[in-house]
TrEMBL record:
CDD domains reported in the protein's UniProt record: BTB_POZ_ZBTB_KLHL-like
Signal peptide interval: none
PANTHER family: BTB DOMAIN-CONTAINING PROTEIN-RELATED, HL07962P-RELATED
PROSITE patterns referenced in this protein's UniProt entry, alphabetically: BTB
Annotated BTB domain residues: 18-88
Entry protein name: BTB domain-containing protein
Gene3D superfamilies associated with the record: Potassium Channel Kv1.1, Chain A
Annotated InterPro entries: BTB-POZ/Galectin-3-binding (IPR051481), BTB/POZ_dom (IPR000210), SKP1/BTB/POZ_sf (IPR011333)
SMART domains tied to this protein: BTB
Species of provenance: Bimuria novae-zelandiae CBS 107.79
Pfam families found in the cross-reference section: BTB (PF00651)
Length: 211
């Protein structure tokens, strides 16, 4: 039996039955996509709100400014195919540095969060390297800070799957992170949601105890 994802796979940027154009712009560059309101609204409450009058839309055209073009297209493709594709996401293919993979997934999670594409958020989190996969990589404290800042700058929900992955990795690398002034305090003060996620992850990992 066909599912919504299988029946809409071939409809990405397809003018057939298209009832809305998505005009994505950034830095003076514009790209248009043929889209279908029913497909977008079925996956994204943000688009449902857009097309039901919460925000103004010119007839037949919705302009989306400011997003990274590649991330935006990846999100649209996911809405139609339920797949996130990038050569570096294949665990059998070496990507030049795990940092690049992490940054890409954080960006995808952020745009999915913005447009409320929950399935893509979960997908990006699932691809986020697991703790044991990252143990061989020596990230310095500045990169750890970058991971936290990149995610929690746009994060809406506490204890989302990406936040749990990040906090799990940090606690694995820095078991005393919460008590370490050199690293912990600036981030804990700057990002309250990170603080809550980290505390809850620590409690969960230690049977309800912080130490």
């Amino acid at each position: 039996m066909a599912t919504a994802s299988t029946t809409s796979t071939g409809m990405f940027d397809n003018p057939l039955f298209s009832d809305i154009k998505i005009r994505q712009t950034r830095d003076g560059v514009t790209k248009e996509y043929h889209a279908h309101k029913a497909v977008l609204c079925a996956v994204s409450p943000w688009f449902l709100g857009l097309f039901t009058g919460i925000q103004d839309v010119d007839i037949g055209v919705a302009t989306m400014p400011g997003d990274d073009p590649q991330d935006f297209e990846a999100m649209l493709r996911y809405i139609y195919t339920q797949e996130l594709k990038h050569p570096g996401l294949d665990r059998n293919v070496y990507w030049d540095g795990a940092e690049m993979k992490i940054n890409y997934l954080l960006d995808i999670h952020a745009i999915a969060d913005k447009y409320e594409v929950r399935g893509l958020q979960a997908c990006a989190s699932e691809h986020f390297p697991l703790v044991h996969e990252l143990e061989e990589h020596e990230f310095d404290v500045y990169f750890l800070e970058l991971i936290v800042e990149t995610h929690y700058r746009t994060c809406i929900d506490n204890r989302c799957s990406m936040g749990r992955r990040i906090c799990g990795y940090i606690l694995k690398r820095e078991p005393d992170f919460i008590k370490t002034g050199r690293v912990g305090h600036p981030l804990l003060k700057a990002w309250p949601k990170f603080t809550q996620d980290l505390l809850e992850e620590a409690l969960e990992n230690n049977g309800g105890r912080l130490c």
